[in-house]
Amino acid sequence: MKGEKRREEILSLIGNTENPIPANVLKERFKVSRQVIVQDIAVLRAGGFDITSTNRGYVLGRTARASRVFKCRHSFDEIVDEGVLVIESGGRIEDIYVNHRVYGRISAKLDLYNRTNVEELYRSLVSGASKPLMSVTDGYHYHTITAETEEVLDGIERTLRERGFLIEI
Fold it and tell me: What is the rounded distance in angstroms from the CA atom of residue 61 to the CA atom of residue 112?
């Protein structure tokens, strides 16, 4: 298959799913090396396509969604509760960041959109590979949360407040 045709199909695949598609899946599908896939993604980006690389694969920029930043605080053991609450209320946790008094803003892309993502994140933190970002600020942290509408975000805000996770900014 020629490169141009392969790139069209890659764009179609990542554009027609909510889930990230790993490079390894693409390389198997198109019977090329992983490096060829990486190069194809670079060519597509250079062509103006908003393709993001996450730890779970490639995603095409989403259509406009409502977005809001929430300041939260909870214990390590409540990470799954917070994530599932947001997702089951119709939200997507895009990132986490903290405002460190010495280092400034420290952030990480999360892209959590289902319960499995949240549980995988928690398992990796429990394994001791690393501590959660919120641990450097005594549990205080911010999330950018997206949803289909502002009304959904209002519901998420109410639920976070009811659970005692929301800190008023």
Answer: 15
Per-residue pLDDT tens digits for 109-128: 998 988 998 999 999 999 98
Q: Are strands 92-100 and 104-112 parallel, antiparallel or unpaired?
A: antiparallel
C-alpha radius of gyration, the chain, whole number: 18
Q: What predicted TM-score, i.e. pTM, was given to this entire model?
A: 0.65
Using the predicted structure, report yes or no on whether residue 62 has a pLDDT greater than 80.
Answer: no
C-alpha to C-alpha distances, 69 to 73, 89, 118, 167, nearest whole angstrom: 13, 16, 18, 11
Q: What is the 3-state secondary structure (H, E, C) of 93-108?
A: EEEEEEEECCCEEEEE
**What does DSSP assign to residue 111?**
E
What residues pair up with 57 in beta bridges, in sequence order? Answer: 54
Asked if residue 63 has pLDDT above 60, the reply is no
In order, the DSSP letters of 15-83 are HT-SS-B-HHHHHHHHT--HHHHHHHHHHHHHTT--EEEETTEEEEPPPP-EEEEEEEE--GGGHHHHH
Partners of 112 in beta bridges: 93
Residue 59: half-sphere exposure toward Cβ, Cα within 13 Å: 14
